[in-house]
Amino acid sequence: MNKIKHLINNSKLKYLCPADYVNIGFILILTFLNIVSASVVPYWYLLVLLNFFLVFFIINVVYKYETSVDTLDDSGKLSFIRIFRFWYGVFFILIFFKQVYILIHYIGPPALDNYLIRLDYKIFGLNPTQWAYQFQNPYLTEFLQVIYFFYYLMIIIYGLELYLWKRYREFKFAIFVIFTGFYLSYILYMIFPAVGPRFYLHDFYSIKTQLPGIFLTDFIRAFLDFGESIPSNVVPNPGDFAQSDAMPSAHTTLALIIAYLSWKIKSKSFLFYMPYFVLMIIATIYLRYHYVVDIIAGVFLAIITILIGEYLLKHSEPDKYGKIRGIM
After folding, report:
1. Region 65-77: what's the mean pLDDT?
2. pTM for the full model?
3. Average pLDDT of the residues of the chain
4. How far apart are CA 56 and CA 313, in angstroms?
5. Is 95 exposed, middle or buried (0-12, 13-18, 19+ CB in 10 A)?
6. In the chain, domain spans
């Protein structure tokens, strides 16, 4: 252990923060899975090369920024490097999401949707997404579809709130918790693959007529379907193409994590994010994206992630996070 610490402290690795280590750790997990699945995953070597490049990128961008921050002050060059240093993870999340899709497709277990449906029915005595259909209203559909889509902007907006106020230490803590929540979700996707009730309990191609919106609903749905690799043309079994990202509900996990962070870091946006979390839960059921057991799992995962963040806060070295302003 001491040799490892010595190696880290005498290399570029000493400039990495916990969020960077989480990113690199997940990259290594994906790389390992690609290598051991080389016989079935096509072009696995390209994914491995990409992952090694991403690790190289993280280490060197962080090193460049952390060693320049005191000498370049707020010059344009530093601002450019700072953007890469703090925001690279947003782009990497998308790359990892599709790598998980590939791995599930080739080496994942069969979809567990039927099992999740039975769990929901055993708990509630009905299928919640079918029950929610009685409240169908185009204006409600439009509102909840926007709520569901805002999840993809929420993380960036919350990050900008800290970044633009130059609360960089708080930003590093926040992205550590957020990335941890993401990657734990991705790992569980691979263990418990499921595509959601819109494929197993409902006719996927009838959603436009059963849950029509007003202006933005169709566009948002098409955009999200594209992101989940669902063909735009009609195919016999669209669920076979969809990303297995239902169990747990990452929308629930991340919405709760952001609400927690906005409270923990004493951000004024807490009064927005806590009600948003509640609306997100409603949206995931009403719009047929998740089973209720997905949401329950998402809440538990958020709690576990938050506890990991609390542990880090109490045991991290002062030069990593120190006394983060605004945190009790």
Report:
1. 67
2. 0.91
3. 90
4. 27
5. middle
6. 1-108, 111-328
